[in-house]
Amino acid sequence: MHAMLDQAIAELQFLKKREERSLQSQIKQIEESFTLRLEIFEQQYLTKVEEIKQEMQAAIEQQKRKCETTILTAAKQLKQKTQQPAVVPDLPAPILEGQQKEVDEHGAETQRELSPVSAQKAKLRVLETKLASFSQESVDRVSSELKSGRRKAQISNGTQARA
């Protein structure tokens, strides 16, 4: 009976060691499987994060281009306004007709023809008045802001491309 007990104990220890080895093997397989799944998930996560960052950057660039286009259009319109001759209806009536109103000694208004030079000088004064509200400095300032905005965008794009 003692021999049977010793044999049963030995067999139990053998089974215990075998099951422990089997358990260790299964644990290792489970850990490897989950580690692999985690690595795949992590890669998918990083890929998705990168996609979102690229979408964000594309949206930012699109908005920058839209703003630059708006600024450029405004600058061109401002430049055109400063470089265009005065619109004829905006000129005073005597200049349009090439005449000048005068008051004679009796207080009655009379009109006298202006010389071409005088008419041009009058037009020039009107143009100068209009140009004062849209100075070349304004056009230059808007143009330089637009150029510096593009440079900043180019610098930030170059920095991000290297990162």
Oligomer: single chain
Distance between the termini: 78 Å
Structural class: mainly alpha
Nearest-angstrom radius of gyration?
Answer: 44 Å
- Globular, elongated, flat, extended or rod-shaped: what is the shape? rod-shaped
Low-confidence stretches: 91-98
Mean pLDDT: 78
Q: For the largest sheet, list the strands in their spatial order.
A: 1-2
Instruction: Give a short account of the largest sheet.
Output: 2 strands, antiparallel
The H/E string reads HHEEHH
Strand content: 5-15%
Q: State the share of residues found in helices, binned by percent.
A: over 70%
The number of helices is 4
What does this molecule look like?
The chain is mainly alpha-helical and 163 residues long. The protein has a domain at 55-163. 81% of the residues lie in helices and 6% in strands. The protein contains 4 helices and 2 strands; from the N terminus they run H-H-E-E-H-H. The protein has helices spanning 2-83, 93-97, 116-133, 136-162, and strands spanning 99-103, 109-113. The protein has a two-stranded antiparallel ribbon with strand order 1-2. A hairpin with a 5-residue loop joins strand 1 (99-103) and strand 2 (109-113). The two termini are 78 Å apart. Residues 91-98 have low confidence and may be disordered.
